[in-house]
Design a protein that fits this description.
heterodimer; A: alpha/beta; TIM Barrel; 8-stranded parallel β-sheet; 8 strands; B: alpha/beta; 6-stranded mixed β-sheet; 4-stranded parallel β-sheet; 14 strands; globular; binds pyridoxal-5'-phosphate
Chain lengths: 247, 376
C-alpha cells in the first residue's frame, strides 16, 4: 500500500490501458462491493464519506449519503470501512468527501488517519484549487475552468487531474458531454499528468467515448445503482465498462 | 460608512470559497463585475434611483412608545419597502449586476418567501427568467408568498427532501447554478455563501444602517445606545450594523431564533460555500434548525457575523418561538403594525435590553405569517 501523496497514478497502467475508477459510498457492504468492483476490472476505488449537504452531488449520490448517515457512517466509521477495504483489495483507494468533515476532524489529522487506513489520495468536492493548498489532494477541473485555473489545479494536484465533464452535479446523463474534448485538450496543454474524466459517465459507450480523450474514467452514480443489486451485479457492470475500455 | 472590504473574502477565520470548481470562474467574474459596479457612479445612481422610485426609499423610522414604554425605541421600517421586506434592497442591486454580466436567468432560494418574492419582482421588472427553490414545508407555512411568486411569473420549485426548508432550498439553488452557470445569476438572499456574496449583500443592505443613522441623529440629536436586528443568514442585521459598526459606543445586538442559534450554539464548519459558525455535530454533519419563522430556520449564518461575535464588536442573543409570537401580537396591538415573525424575534429582546435609545430593524411585514400565528 502506497502512502498518501505518492504519485502512484503517474505510473502508466499496464499496456497503456485506460484506468477505470469506481465510486462507492462507505457502508457495511463496501468491502465486499469493492472486491467485486476490482474483480470486474476497477483500477482505483473512490470511497464516499457521506456529508449531509453534498452540493456537488445529484440525487443518486445524495440519497446514498443520506442512507449511509442514517446507518451511522460518520468519519470514524468511514475510516474503519476504508481500512477494511484496504485489507480486501490491492488497488489505490481514494476517499471523496466535503470540507465540513475535514473541518470537524482537522485537515492534517484527516489526511494522516486516512493514509494510515489505506488511502492513497483524497478528493474534496468543495475545496477548489487555491483553497488550503497545504492539503494534498486530487484537484478537479471543469469545462468552466479558465486556462489559468487549469494550470493552478495541475500544479496543486496529487497524481492525476479529475476532469469534470459537464457543468453540473454528479449523476448519469444520456450522452457524453460534448465539453469533454475541449477540456481534455486544454488540460493536456497544462500538464503531463494523467487525466481521468468523471461526472455523467455511466454506460460502456460513454466510457469508450471518453477514453478517446483521457487516460481514465470515473463512474459514480451508476455504480451505486449497480451496487444496490449486490456484488454480482456490480462486478458485471464494472466488467462491461472494462471491456468497453479495452476494445 | 461601512465595514472594511474583506481580503480574499475572509472575515478573520471565516468566509472563503468552499465550492465545486465549476463555480469558481463565475465567482471571479461576479467579483470583478461587482468591483467595477461599486466604483461606477452610473450604477450607484441607477440603484439609488430604483430604491427611491420603485422601492420607496428612504423608509421611515417610527417611534414605538406604546410597545416599549420607558424607552425610545425606533423601528426602521423595512416592512414598508416594496414587496414588504428588506430583501428588495439586495435583489435590486443583484439584478443590476446580473444585467451587467449578461445573465438572463435568475435562480434563488427562499425560506419565508420574502427573498423569493423580491427576486421574482426584480425578474419581472427587468424581464428576466426566474426560478425559486423553496422547501415544501416552507411552501406550506408561507403560502401567500408562493402565490405571489407565481403571479409575478416566477417558477417555484419545491424541495422535497431533507429538512424541506431553507437549508435544502439553498443547496438545490446552488446545484441548479452549477448546471446553468453560464447563463444564470445566482441571486443569493442573505450575506452567506462563497466570496464575494457576503460582501455584496452587506453593501447592498448597508442602506438600512446609513439611513437609520442619519434618521436617529436627526430625530434625537445623538446615536442610539443599541442597534438590534434578527439574524437568519444575517443580511438585515449586517445592513443595519454597517451604519453603526464604526461607532464604538453603539451596541450591536443580533437576535437569533432559539432553535436556530448558529452563533449562540454553533461551531466552526463549512456550509453553502463558506466557513462560518454552524449548527453541526462533532463530525461536521449539519444539524437541523427549528424555528416557527421560516426566514430564521437555517443552521448557518453569514461569516461576517461569526467574525463580529468573536471580536466582541457585536453580541448575539436568542428568542424562542413563543417570545416571538408574543412580540408579534404585542406590536400589532400597541402600534398598529404587524411585523413579520423574523423581526418579531428582535422585538422580543428589546424590553430587557439595558439601553434607552434603541433602533430595531423591522425587516418585514407579517401578512405572510398570519395563518401560522393564528393557528398557534
Ligand atoms: C422579513 C425578514 N426578516 C429577516 C429575514 C432573515 O434573513 P436575514 O437574516 O438575511 O435578514 C427574512 C428571511 O426570509 C425575512 O423575510
Amino acid at each position: 500500500m502506497t502512502a498518501a501523496g505518492t504519485p502512484w497514478a503517474a505510473a502508466p497502467l499496464s499496456g497503456g490501458a485506460k484506468a477505470l475508477v469506481v465510486y462507492l459510498m462507505a457502508g457495511a457492504r463496501t468491502p465486499e462491493l469493492a472486491e467485486a468492483a476490482v474483480e470486474g476490472g476497477a483500477d482505483i476505488v473512490e470511497i464516499g464519506f457521506p456529508f449531509s449537504d453534498p452540493l456537488a452531488d445529484g440525487p443518486v449520490i445524495r440519497r446514498a449519503a443520506e442512507r449511509a448517515l442514517a446507518e451511522g457512517m460518520r468519519t470514524q466509521a468511514c475510516l474503519e470501512c476504508l481500512a477494511c477495504v484496504a485489507e480486501r483489495v490491492e488497488v489505490p483507494l481514494v476517499p471523496m468527501t466535503y470540507s465540513s468533515l475535514l473541518e470537524a476532524y482537522g485537515y492534517d489529522r484527516f489526511a494522516t488517519d486516512a493514509a494510515a487506513a489505506g488511502a492513497t489520495g483524497l478528493i474534496v468536492a468543495d475545496l477548489p484549487a487555491g483553497e488550503r493548498p497545504a492539503l494534498r489532494r486530487i484537484q478537479l477541473v471543469a469545462p468552466t475552468s479558465t486556462d489559468e485555473r487549469l494550470r493552478l489545479a495541475a500544479r496543486e494536484t496529487d497524481g492525476w487531474l479529475y476532469l469534470v465533464t459537464i457543468a453540473g452535479t454528479t449523476g448519469a446523463r444520456e450522452s457524453l458531454s460534448p465539453a469533454l474534448a475541449g477540456l481534455a485538450a486544454r488540460a493536456r496543454r497544462a500538464t503531463d499528468l494523467p487525466l481521468y474524466a468523471g461526472f455523467g459517465i455511466s454506460t460502456p459507450a460513454h466510457a469508450a467515448a471518453a477514453a478517446d480523450h483521457v487516460d481514465g474514467v470515473v463512474v459514480g452514480s451508476r455504480a451505486l445503482e449497480a451496487a444496490e443489486g449486490g456484488p454480482g451485479t456490480l462486478r458485471a457492470y464494472v466488467r462491461s465498462l472494462r471491456d468497453a475500455l479495452r476494445a | 460608512m461601512s465595514l472594511p472590504a474583506p481580503a480574499k473574502g475572509l472575515y478573520g477565520v471565516y468566509g472563503g470559497r468552499y465550492v465545486p470548481e465549476t463555480l469558481v470562474p463565475a465567482l471571479d467574474e461576479l467579483e470583478a463585475a461587482w468591483r467595477l459596479a461599486a466604483r461606477d457612479e452610473a450604477f450607484r445612481a441607477e440603484l439609488a434611483g430604483l430604491g427611491e422610485s420603485y422601492g420607496g426609499r428612504p423608509t421611515p423610522v417610527t417611534l414605538a412608545e406604546r410597545f416599549a414604554p420607558g424607552k425610545r425605541l425606533y423601528l426602521k421600517r423595512e416592512d414598508l419597502l416594496h414587496t414588504g421586506s428588506h430583501k428588495l434592497n439586495n435583489a435590486l442591486g443583484q439584478a443590476l449586476l446580473a444585467r451587467r454580466l449578461g445573465k438572463r436567468r435568475l435562480v434563488a432560494e427562499t425560506g419565508a418567501g420574502q427573498h423569493g418574492v423580491a427576486t421574482a419582482t426584480v425578474a419581472a421588472r427587468f424581464g428576466l427568467e426566474c426560478v425559486v427553490y423553496m422547501g415544501s414545508e416552507d411552501m406550506r407555512r408561507q403560502r401567500p408568498n408562493v402565490e405571489r411568486m407565481g403571479l409575478l411569473g416566477a417558477e417555484v420549485r419545491p424541495v422535497e427532501f431533507g429538512t424541506r426548508t431553507l437549508k435544502e432550498a439553498t443547496s438545490e439553488a446552488i446545484r441548479d447554478w452549477i448546471a446553468t452557470v453560464e447563463t444564470t445569476h445566482y441571486l443569493i438572499g442573505s450575506c452567506v455563501g462563497p466570496h464575494p456574496y457576503p460582501e455584496i449583500v452587506r453593501e447592498l443592505q448597508a442602506v438600512i444602517g446609513r439611513e437609520a443613522r442619519a434618521q436617529l441623529l436627526a430625530a434625537e440629536g445623538r446615536l442610539p445606545d443599541a442597534a438590534v436586528a434578527c439574524v437568519g443568514g444575517g443580511s438585515n442585521a449586517i445592513g443595519l450594523f454597517a451604519g453603526f459598526v464604526a461607532d464604538a459606543d453603539v451596541r450591536l445586538v443580533g437576535v437569533e431564533a432559539a432553535g436556530a442559534a448558529s452563533l449562540g450554539a454553533g461551531r466552526p464548519g463549512v456550509l453553502h460555500g463558506a466557513r462560518s459558525s454552524l449548527l453541526a455535530d462533532s463530525d461536521g454533519q449539519i444539524l437541523d434548525a427549528h424555528s416557527i419563522s421560516a426566514g430564521l430556520d437555517y443552521p448557518g449564518v453569514g461569516p461576517e457575523h461569526a467574525f463580529l461575535r468573536d471580536s466582541g464588536r457585536a453580541e448575539y442573543v436568542a428568542a424562542s418561538d413563543e417570545e416571538a409570537v408574543a412580540a408579534f401580537r404585542h406590536l400589532a396591538r400597541t402600534e398598529g403594525i404587524v411585523p413579520a415573525l423574523e423581526p418579531a424575534h428582535a422585538l422580543a429582546r428589546v424590553a430587557e435590553l439595558d439601553a434607552e435609545l434603541i433602533v430595531v430593524c423591522l425587516s418585514g411585514r407579517g401578512d405572510k405569517d398570519l395563518a401560522e400565528v393564528l393557528a398557534q
